[in-house]
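Quarterly update, task 2.4: glutamine-bound model.
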Amino acid sequence: MELNTSSITSIAEAVKTKKISAVEVTSHFLARIDQHDKKINSFVSLNARALEEAASIDKRIAAGESVGALAGVPVAVKDLLCTEGLRTTACSKILENFVPPYSATVVEKLRAAGAVVLGKTSLDEFAMGSSNETSIFGSVKNTWNLYYVPVVSSGGSAEALAARLAPAAIGTDTGGSIRQPASFCGVYGIKPTYGRVSRYGIIAFASSLDQAGPMAHSTEDCAVLLEAMSGKDRLDATSASIEVPSWSKSLRKDLKGLRIGLPKEYFSEALDPDVARVTQEAIAALKAVGAEPVEISLPLVKYAVSIYYLIATSEASSNLARYDGVRFGYRSNFDENPAADLGEFYARNRGEAFGAEVKRRIMLGTYALSSGYYDAYYQKAGQVRRLLRDEFLQAFEKCDVILSPVTTSPAFKLGERISNPLEMYLNDIFTTSTNLAGLPGMSVPVGFSKLGLPIGVQLMAKHFDEQRIFDVSKALETAFKAGEKVPNGI
Ligand code: GLN
């Protein structure tokens, strides 16, 4: 069986019918990590119990027990999701040696469906960033071109997939971190509707925006993974009590009459020519299978980056207050150099262990929340966020799915934007509005830039209407098969 290019469902089927064992599948991907990951740097920890977990799946199958839809499927998990007994760092010095006593609900659910956790993948420190250059474990390289960034914090998960080091990966998306790296690495990735997936056990960045989601090599693979991950969780009050459909089994054969909304604000002159070309090709392909493009307008989207960076930093400043070095995490060397008081104790622990970008966000957020500024910044951002959400809902009266670019340009060079935070933040212009409105959004690989770097398009739908997104994704997959291309040397 050619495991590198096999779908998740075919791997699970082969394991269940004993054509291959779960141990063989896991060993194959562990060997690939050993062979290729030195140059890509996508994994920060491997699961020492991976083979044991795989063996227990094989044992259950041998005993005739029923195993789930992901039987024996190895999964790479972003190192922002807690894994019991397996180091979880958020790629920050403050959690460098943190071993969680419990697992995120998402991880539990994947395991219950038969998946095997291969290891933990790299991210920007605390998922804050757009280039995967601020991890304490060093930057992740783009498999398609080692001098380019994989972009955004789930870069490790996206690269592990692109390099065929795992057939499935889990990312998180607060302002674009599943969709942007998926686009830059030529894979599929969906941020589900806010509330679709439990946030319990996911290290919080901005709680009203964070969602975990799957990344994989096809529409069906993403759908199957999301089916396993979704559902109400009593440990997360914001998870929704709403039925989880079988998206993978209900994909439409054609798109006759489906209205594709094209927000005119997203198609400006500023768009990189390669991105503009690939997006137009996607629109033409959808028209060819019966979809009807309609122009829509989302004028408030121009404020999305500003609203996002106020809300995300405010929530981050509050969420990250828990890292003080008292009960867990990094602690300065107080034996040699004792602290004068509690204030110095906190300041040294936090000052020595948080990186520059995380500190910038904590300070921005603390400022926006402080008395006297709260009304002008945090509260105002919340009000405009509500208007933005309403604007999207109105747009969905005219269309079923919205299509747009994912970013304004393809992957950029390592080091190119890291010294200019504002330029880096503006990269998030097309993705943050989806999180602010709580909508589902997906990146689907469609084409390549002149330099051979992958480019995806973004699909958005109404709350909890992931099915429409998967339908359109499937049509693009059939038309372009762009996710099947493998980077050179892999
Ligand atoms: N680039 C965005 C930020 O830096 C989004 C990151 C994310 O989605 N985790 O906040």
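Highlight for this quarter: The two ends are 17 Å apart (CA to CA).
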